[in-house]
Specification:
The complex is a heterodimer of chains A (258) and B (525).
Chain A lengths: L2 H8 L18 H14 L1 H4 L22 H10 L13 H14 L11 H9 L9 E2 L2 E2 L9 H4 L2 H9 L11 E6 L4 E9 L3 E6 L4 E5 L3 E6 L14 H12 L10
Antiparallel strand pairs in A: 1-2, 3-4, 3-7, 4-5, 5-6
Helix pairs in contact in A: 2-5, 4-5, 6-9, 8-9
Chain B lengths: L1 H12 L6 H5 L20 E2 L12 E8 L11 E3 L2 E6 L3 E6 L5 E5 L19 E3 L2 E5 L4 E6 L5 E6 L14 E3 L2 E5 L10 E6 L5 E6 L29 E3 L4 E5 L21 E6 L5 E6 L15 E7 L2 E9 L4 E6 L5 E6 L6 E4 L5 E3 L10 E3 L13 E3 L4 E8 L2 E5 L13 E5 L6 E8 L4 E8 L8 E3 L3 E5 L4 E6 L5 E6 L9 E5 L2 E8 L2 E7 L1
Parallel strand pairs in B: 1-32
Antiparallel strand pairs in B: 2-38, 3-4, 4-5, 5-6, 7-8, 8-9, 9-10, 11-12, 12-13, 13-14, 15-16, 16-17, 17-18, 19-20, 20-21, 21-22, 23-24, 25-28, 26-27, 27-30, 28-29, 30-31, 32-33, 33-34, 34-35, 36-37, 37-38
Classes of the chains: A alpha+beta (258), B mainly beta (525).
């Protein structure tokens, strides 16, 4: 929300035409190797070492939704995606091409393809898993966690599995659980929507939007842990396979039936 | 009819020339704001007392002026005899009537499409001398305008924009000259500070911040790396009429994060240089960050104060550096007197007796990323500190943050970015900031006022015992200058990358600050 954007904005620039080339001129094996090195340092923290997502989008797909051609991919890597966590990156032109070549090669890797049964996975999601308490899929479900309607487009199977089994591994700062205590001793918690020097706004557990001046609070703290519970041991390996297969197939909102 | 005649008479009386003597005695005309920092000493202090700690809670927005540009609005307006001169991005000027906020004239400069700037087509302000207004442009010109009409009197090419030079700094006008620096530290320029004759626009002197062959300091650059040594001069410096020296900070060496290709100390990057105001000759220099690999430009505003250090009265220059150390130097000799960290830093064990940093191992940028405090934007940056002679305190908007620093290839092509790496936020680390009040000669902290995010805006202190500023979330605020207690707040929109200033119009005090894409002017009802 705050600090992150500032750093990005420091060297903010408008996207311009990619200098020189229409398609990637740096795709030799040694370019790919250098691209992987750069990727591991600068990108893997968000996109995962194999590109199947995390905080960042799933890059291990045949066609990137925001970067279908080389020029757009170059621009995205250089300038980032405004108003998201995807940062701009200062690199030499050739280095950007090398990273782009590596990113494209990720699409060819089959990253732990989902072996489960999506139908059974849907049943776990809506039933035993209780996922809709906190997550929306289409018009159903809760608002505490992010909507999963297009999660299969954003995250690969590897990341989905990790999130279900070990949710504390990679907590995005956009979903911080805040606990506030008023001067009257009453407490309330919810997801932080905004915080600044003087005020804080949250969405509470019932979905209500609440706004506070900090001076009216006795104290407030931000949980570093994710509110997302771990399902390790609560669901069988087979059930988790099924869940992953179902989630991987969620590719965005569908229109209503006619 | 009568009122009109009255106003005409008043404005006619107020259209005197801006002379060097008026600029020297700025404190005698507290209703005007005639230089970037309000005076030559870099104080950004307004002696005005109408708005003060007792009544500031009644402050209201008097008027707002909005630009057409979506670029960052970094200006400090000047106010001279009832007219406000505002620079707008990319390199335009508008003269506003301070009574109403309405435009009197405009200077619009068309820009070529291929401007080279690292961080936006911005401008930080204009200078005034005689009856001319001076602006530096992102296509690298210095332009003199008629203060009454905005008509161009002359324009001089400072350098070649296609080679990566641009001008974003507010010029400093003094004597019969206009002093102006260049930006381009991300393009492998060779930095310089220039003075131009205010009447003719002819170059009076040029000081190269990267010494050429045969000049002292040249051997601090390996091979021919000096040719792309950068060391821009993109923040307005200070001037002391008694030493007759100009004090100016210099920017990062190029390329920013790859030091391999420019082994050596890389003089005079990340330094303060003291130049003879008449000839531009170097009197002394002090380098804060030898062989910088983190992009810690020493382009902060030098603050000139007199104070006692270890029992001895001295003429000082205070320099709260981007590298997270606070420096106190003797401004006559350049001697290092005192230095200490004033924000979290993890790159140096401390400073030695000569003020040189004792570097810690493992802090250079790497391919996998090296986490170091302070961040690339530093503990302080180009935005202004403020010194109040009334409280004797120096106010700095301090940034508490780190960065992951990346090492990369450094392949120089004229007119293209030459960075040799990059940076991003450290995952999972909270960043924050604080307005801190320092005792200038010792660097002791008298009080602090915490803010949620690292700030990027300057401060103004006033005779009314107030400190004005804004948070990164565009909350304009006033603090009690003695205690740091918050007394007033207004939520503007957008981001704030500017400095506040204050002036009188119609006998009433106003405070102005650019926030978002607008200039807000506050006054009491």
């Amino acid at each position: 929300m705050h600090g992150l954007w500032l750093t990005v904005l420091l060297f903010q620039q408008q996207a311009v035409d990619v200098p020189g080339f229409d398609s990637n001129p740096f795709t030799s094996p040694s370019d790919l190797a250098q691209g992987e090195k750069l990727y591991l340092g600068r990108c893997a923290g968000c996109h995962g070492p194999r590109g199947d997502g995390g905080k960042g989008a799933n890059l291990a797909v045949p066609t990137l939704s925001r970067a279908a051609d080389d020029k757009t991919l170059w621009n995205i890597i250089r300038y980032g995606v405004p108003d998201t966590e995807m940062p701009s990156s200062l690199m030499a032109q050739r280095e950007i091409w090398q990273v782009a070549a590596f990113v494209k090669s990720l699409g060819a890797i089959q990253s732990g393809a989902a072996s489960g049964d999506p139908k059974r996975g849907e049943a776990v999601t809506r039933g035993k898993g209780g996922c809709l308490q906190c997550h929306a899929i289409g018009s159903d479900g809760g608002r505490m966690g992010p909507a999963l309607t297009d999660i299969g487009a954003r995250s690969g199977p590897g990341h989905l599995r990790a999130k279900i089994v070990e949710p504390q591994g990679d907590v995005p700062h956009t979903f911080r659980l805040a606990s506030l205590r008023g001067r009257d001793g009453k407490t309330v918690s919810g997801i932080r929507l905004n915080e600044d020097t003087f005020s804080i706004q949250i969405r509470d557990m019932t979905g209500g939007l609440r706004s506070y001046w900090k001076k009216d609070l006795a104290d407030w703290k931000m949980e570093k842990r994710s509110p997302m519970p771990s399902y390790k041991g609560k669901l069988s390996d087979g059930e988790i396979d099924d869940l992953v297969a179902y989630l991987a197939g969620l590719r965005g909102a569908k229109g209503g039936e006619r | 009819m009568r009122t009109a005649a009255c106003i005409l008479a008043a404005s006619a009386a107020l259209s005197a020339q801006v002379t060097h003597e008026r600029l020297l005695d700025a404190a005698r005309e507290p209703g005007n704001w005639m230089t970037y920092s309000g005076n030559f000493a870099g104080h950004r202090f307004s002696p005005l007392t109408q708005v003060n700690d007792a009544n500031v809670s009644r402050l209201k927005v008097a008027w707002v002026y909005t630009t057409n540009s979506l670029q960052k609005f970094e200006t400090t307006p000047l106010v001279i005899d009832g007219v406000m001169y505002v620079s707008e991005p990319p390199s335009n000027v508008v003269a506003l009537d301070t009574r109403t906020g309405r435009p009197l004239w405009r200077y619009r400069r068309p820009m070529p499409p291929d401007i080279r700037v690292c961080c936006g087509q911005v401008n930080r302000g204009v200078a005034a001398l005689g009856d001319s207004i001076f602006i530096g442009t992102v296509d690298s010109y210095l332009v003199a305008l008629d203060a009454k009409t905005g008509a161009v009197r002359w324009e001089t090419k400072v350098n070649e924009y296609k080679s990566g030079y641009s001008v974003t700094v507010a010029p400093l006008a003094l004597k019969d000259k206009v002093v102006i620096g260049v930006a381009g530290g991300e393009y492998g320029i060779r930095g310089h500070l220039d003075a131009y004759d205010a009447k003719s626009g002819k170059l009076a002197w040029r000081f190269y911040t990267v010494p050429g062959p045969g000049e002292p300091g040249h051997d601090t650059w390996a091979g021919d790396s000096w040719k792309r040594g950068s060391a821009g001069t993109w923040v307005t410096g200070a001037y002391d009429p008694e030493t007759d020296l100009i004090y100016w900070g210099t920017g990062n060496p190029g390329p920013d994060w790859n030091g391999e290709v420019r082994k050596g100390d890389n003089l005079y990057s990340d330094s303060i240089v003291a130049l003879d105001a008449n000839s531009g000759q170097l009197k002394w220099h002090f380098q804060f960050t030898p062989h910088d690999v983190h992009d810690w430009d020493a382009t902060e505003v030098p603050v000139l104060v007199d104070g006692e250090v270890r029992g001895q009265k001295r003429k000082l220059v205070i320099f709260p550096n981007r590298n997270a150390f606070y420096y106190v130097l003797d401004r006559v000799s350049g001697q290092f007197l005192l230095g200490k960290a004033y924000a979290k830093q993890t790159w140096a064990k401390g400073l030695d007796d000569n003020g040189k940093p004792i570097r810690l191992p493992g802090t250079f940028p790497s391919i996998q990323g090296t986490a170091v405090w302070p961040s690339v934007a530093g503990a302080n940056n180009w935005y202004s500190p403020s010194y109040s002679p009334k409280t004797g305190l120096l106010y700095i908007n301090v940034r508490e943050a780190g960065s992951l620093y990346f090492f990369g290839e450094a392949d120089f092509k004229l007119g293209e970015q030459y960075n040799g790496g990059g940076f991003r936020a450290i995952p999972g680390e909270e960043e924050w900031g604080a307005v801190r009040a320092f005792r200038p000669a010792t660097g002791e902290v008298a009080w602090e006022h915490k803010v949620f995010s690292p700030p990027y805006a300057g401060l103004l202190s006033t005779g009314g015992n107030l400190v004005f500023g804004a948070t990164s979330e565009a909350q304009f605020f006033a603090l009690n200058a003695t205690t740091g207690k918050e007394l007033y707040r207004f939520q503007a929109g957008g981001m704030v990358r500017s400095n506040p200033m204050s002036y009188l119009s119609g006998g009433k005090q106003y405070v102005a600050m650019a926030m978002g894409n607008s200039l807000y002017v506050f006054g009491l009802e």
